[in-house]
């Protein structure tokens, strides 16, 4: 009987692994390309997944625990009827970022972002007219190359913004990390485990 913990790739993977290490959960034979990893605890495994795949894993009960940033929860309009626990891993911001051309193009607010739903909700609330283009990967590049006036992206230390001489206009939200778990599946696994240990097999 396995317990599977899903960790999305990207920004929080390193911090999530450090968090688990502090909880005495060590990884065996881990490298950047390995996706299914044994741990120091018997029957507990780590599965590295793509950020957007967490919906499939949650819906189909492929995992027992998922580490997830609240930005993903809001952007996909997931409800918090999930069982969850706040994790003290790191705090990050989602910010509107601009290049110098923003000042000369106030009437044409053209955004590039992968957080389309979050941005749309914010701009509608502020009654701002906009045009949003979906973009994944290094969203900052569209701002640096001036192919867009504005972007919405994650900002932690602000070092990338400063080093590339672009401007943080406004932090619109503060995000944290959560541990999402399926309590029903965990109960079933606990009952199976107890049955294996304490219930005699009368058919032998």
UniProtKB/TrEMBL annotation:
State the source organism's domain of life. Answer: Bacteria
Q: Name one GO biological process term.
A: L-histidine biosynthetic process
Q: Which Gene3D superfamilies match?
A: Periplasmic binding protein-like II
Q: Which InterPro entries match?
A: ATP_PRibTrfase_cat, ATP_PRibTrfase_HisG
> Does the entry feature the keyword Transferase, yes or no?
yes
Q: Which GO terms describe its molecular function?
A: ATP phosphoribosyltransferase activity
- Per UniProt, residues of the ATP phosphoribosyltransferase catalytic domain are 52-184
What EC number(s) is this enzyme filed under? 2.4.2.17
Q: Does the keyword Amino-acid biosynthesis apply?
A: yes
Q: Which UniProt keywords apply?
A: Amino-acid biosynthesis, Glycosyltransferase, Histidine biosynthesis, Membrane, Transferase, Transmembrane, Transmembrane helix
A Pfam family name for this chain?
HisG
Reaction catalysed?
Answer: 1-(5-phospho-beta-D-ribosyl)-ATP + diphosphate = 5-phospho-alpha-D-ribose 1-diphosphate + ATP
Q: Which SUPFAM superfamilies match?
A: Periplasmic binding protein-like II (SSF53850)
One GO CC term, this protein = cytoplasm
Which principal EC class is assigned to this enzyme? transferase
Please give the PANTHER family that the UniProt record associates with this protein: ATP PHOSPHORIBOSYLTRANSFERASE, ATP PHOSPHORIBOSYLTRANSFERASE ATP-PRTASE
Role, per record: Catalyzes the condensation of ATP and 5-phosphoribose 1-diphosphate to form N'-(5'-phosphoribosyl)-ATP (PR-ATP). Has a crucial role in the pathway because the rate of histidine biosynthesis seems to be controlled primarily by regulation of HisG enzymatic activity.
Q: Per its record, how is this protein called by name?
A: ATP phosphoribosyltransferase
Per the UniProt record, the source organism is: Candidatus Nasuia deltocephalinicola str. NAS-ALF
Q: Gene of origin?
A: hisG
